[in-house]
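Appendix B. Extra example for self-study. Work through it before the problem class; the solution is given directly after the inputs so you can check yourself.
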Amino acid sequence: DTAVSQTPKYLVTQMGNDKSIKCEQNLGHDTMYWYKQDSKKFLKIMFSYNNKELIINETVPNRFSPKSPDKAHLNLHINSLELGDSAVYFCASSPRSGVTNIQYFGAGTRLSVL
Amino acid sequence: GENVEQHPSTLSVQEGDSAVIKCTYSDSASNYFPWYKQELGKRPQLIIDIRSNVGEKKDQRIAVTLNKTAKHFSLHITETQPEDSAVYFCAARFRNTGFQKLVFGTGTRLLVSP
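Solution. Structure tokens for the complete assembly:
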């Protein structure tokens, strides 16, 4: 049983298209995240939801819209894709409270915009 | 600001040598510092973490040290093996409008040669 699963694993698309990435966690966590990892391997947080509520929204273009239908799911929709959106997108989840903030990552979605 | 600096960006060692990766953080209120290992094409996975009330933590061949006064922490890997080759990320927990988030360092690519 995969704890944090995201689909698709690979996504190849043309500039200007709209695409979605889905994420689901079965760990019972309250908090979920989207990270972008660029070609230099920098891992940057984009969004975080806690129990379906947006709590972190970094300086991300508004072409990116996250949606959390329930606390086990966090999807990412991207409009009007650009070349610079090409990256690996990781979903992660963690328990909301506690003295640590251990995050469990999905396997990643490699997005290539042509 | 929320900043984590990590050095070196690449590190090459011979099998059996030790490897040290260093990070500094900007916010003295940060209280949790995890280290993640990302193998090629895989997801980041937690390998060790430390809380601010502890100066050192060890788990077999890996150890982490924390100097709160200087705001820096380090990962030490002893008796390195080829399977230790990966990108390592440090992170620090920052508080953001009541919620906490991890800010990651820029990563260190460790290569262990047989």
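Self-check: Chain B touches chain A at residues 31-32, 34, 38, 42-46, 49, 51, 87, 89, 93, 96-97, 99-104, 106-107, 109 (CB under 8 Å). If your reasoning did not lead you there, revisit section 3.
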